[in-house]
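Much of what follows relies on a compact textual record of a protein's fold. A complete example follows; check for yourself that the lines match position by position.
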Amino acid sequence: MQLTDLFPNERARVVAIEGGQCLCQHLALRGLAGGCTLTALSGRFGPVVVRISDETLVLGRGMARKIQVRKV
């Protein structure tokens, strides 16, 4: 499932990032990489907001669609 499919307050683990090296590096520098656990704060409409540890990350919908997750 894609990151954009999560409802607010759902937790998920990142399974894969379907993007190039630049996108993967960009996300990794912000704490989002394969295997990390996140909590969706919003995302059904507009930008996707997630919490990773104590950090909040805002992603555009196009970028968020490239992130595959599995609910935990």
User: Anything to note?
Assistant: The mean pLDDT is 93.
